[in-house]
Amino acid sequence: MEKEGFRHYMLIFYSLRYIPQKDKVKFLRELQGYSERKYGKEYFHSGLIHKFKAEKLGSNVILVPINNFAEFQKLFSKNNIGVRIKEVWAK
To answer: What pTM did the predictor assign?
Structure first.
């Protein structure tokens, strides 16, 4: 949805403060993706941010296009991550 050159986004602020370390790593790998090397080859696993063309703006802040917001919401609720969400229009 566009309005006079502006696009509709959701700004997500999340906190990993009370999450155990192993769960943080699992969540961040799903969100941001990761790469690994095996037997001299490098494998890339893309995360939700790359798949859905979201933008990581800073530590624990993501800008997500509104039409892909449901996928991120599922990930946060599945991992019991606390979030604050703001609706944003940007160019």
So the answer is: 0.83
